[in-house]
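To assess whether ligand presence alters the predicted conformation, the chain was also submitted together with adenosine-5'-triphosphate. Input:
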Amino acid sequence: MSGTSLDGVDGVIAAFAAAPEQPTVTTLASAYVPFSAGLRAELMALQSAGQDEIEREALVANTLAAHYAACVERLLADADLKPGQIRAIGVHGQTIRHRPELGFTRQANNPSLLAELTGIDVIADFRSRDVAAGGQGAPLVPAFHQAMFADPAQTRVVVNIGGIGNISVLHGQAAESEERDVIGFDTGPGNVLMDLWIKRHLDKDYDKDGTWAASGQPSAALLAHMRKEEYFAAAPPKSTGRDLFHAAWLDQQLSHTAPLKLSPADVQATLATLTATTIADAIVRHAPAAETVYICGGGAYNPYLMMQLAHALQSHGLRAHVQSTAALGIAPNHVEAVAFAWLALRFDQRLPGNLPLVTGARGARILGALYPA
Ligand SMILES: Nc1ncnc2c1ncn2[C@@H]1O[C@H](COP(=O)(O)OP(=O)(O)OP(=O)(O)O)[C@@H](O)[C@H]1O
Ligand SMILES: CC(=O)N[C@H]1[C@@H]2OC[C@@H](O2)[C@@H](O)[C@@H]1O[C@H](C)C(=O)O
């Protein structure tokens, strides 16, 4: 998995128990392969229109495949496994454009090259079929969260805070139909704006532990402006990405509060608060009775952001307990990679991977395409 943060590749070897409807998973190995500054810059540049995009996308896809293969090689060595012992690789690719309203979502990827480099079957392109069926093609992880993390006795919320934030509301058995009742959508920015702001001011890739944000004060005026963005009030199904939440969006927001002369650290604190309050709003609206909120994605490692989220929930009178998905047996930084292994398993069994009520697709669809070893 390589997500919207553009930081690198998260890989796992996941072993699923046989029963597909009630899967249990064991993570046999995990590996992280960071992107170089150059690759990251090229992936960032491909997020918007530019010269010679076709050739540049093809070349970057080859570079990505080499990174994915390096990740697989490391995983196999760690777990002491041979390629023949792996059923398939599920690989998401790198989202460079997400325009479901125009009928496409594009992940840069070269699954053929990955199959060639690893000698393992590769399953890729998980989003396109859902978009073809009229869906958003995202988020896809709510189906996995439901399969793995639902508890018949209580309502649980799972929040992924990667570049973009997304939420899954998993009702207990009291709800009429388990599948129908899963609610899931992208809440808006996760870390993406904080990452670009600290890059611009301190030339760092991210605000480690949220210490820079914690040195500032959130601005109520800037927060109020940003929260007027129409995406936040729109009803699901909905998904978003860097197509909307980019540097120009942030600069536009900041232009409204220029007279306040906010310090860069104050802006960073406000951006953390934007992420926290938009996630809290989603929980308040869709899961007011949630007992526990489980956090995954890199944002789980930012104590300032977690503090802002707990604060935002409390200010709405919600007493939900906030903890990481480690409490459910999967480390926050492994959840998405395990989810794409699970989606590959669903493809392998020719079972649907999407939840139509989440993505808005016309129906359940088998997601992905096979590139044989
Ligand atoms: N110790 C930390 N302190 C603060 N932030 C952190 C820390 N560790 C990770 N992060 C944040 O998490 C981000 C990476 O998160 P993650 O790997 O979940 O994103 P992704 O998978 O690329 O995104 P998406 O889920 O949108 O596809 C980093 O860019 C950084 O902003
Ligand atoms: C188009 C795209 O790549 N979307 C990502 C992104 O990152 C988080 C959020 O936006 C989510 O919609 C999705 O990823 C996860 C893995 C998903 O599909 O559930």
